[in-house]
Amino acid sequence: MKYLLDTNVISEPLRSTPNPGIVEQLKACEGETAIPAPVWHELRFGCSRLPHSKRREAIERYLEQVVLPTIPVLEYDREAADWHGSERARLAARGLPPPYVDGQIAAIAYVRNLVLITFNRKDFEGFQGIRIEDWAAIR
């Protein structure tokens, strides 16, 4: 395992016009990617909020038939919670309290030594010791 995918990356194939470079990169890195449990929550929450429709059915199929069978969902465990608590306190002391979910995602990337793939680098740059890549920026 090498990469941890943020919500905006794993949901890119669902866009009406997905970035072909991102879709290609997701395929090329198959078997090397995972998503953190908070991202799975965001995906399920977003889908569950939609009214019953063809769009919602397509998203549910993608989540159940593409994401779950091919991409492991990594837990937010005690080790991640320890790191997250320390980092959150450090950033809050500097007047930069991070969103809780972003901290959970960063913590899972950190403790698993994975590169966090996101289109929102600024959401994670304050965290120490994590590696971040933006696949949209390198295409």
Description:
By secondary structure, this protein is an alpha/beta fold. It has a single domain, classed as 5'-nuclease (Rossmann fold, 3-Layer(aba) Sandwich). It contains 6 helices and 5 strands. It has a 5-stranded parallel sheet with strand order 3-2-1-4-5. It is globular and about 45 Å long.
Lay out the secondary structure.
Blueprint: E1 3-5, H1 7-10, H2 20-28, E2 33-36, H3 37-49, H4 54-70, E3 73-74, H5 78-93, H6 100-112, E4 115-117, E5 131-133
Parallel strand pairs: 1-2, 1-4, 2-3, 4-5
Helix pairs in contact: 3-4, 5-6
Number of strands: 5
* CATH level 4 superfamily: 5'-nuclease
What's the end-to-end separation, in Å?
22 Å
> Which ranges are low-confidence, i.e. pLDDT below 50, for 5 or more consecutive residues?
none
Number of helices: 6
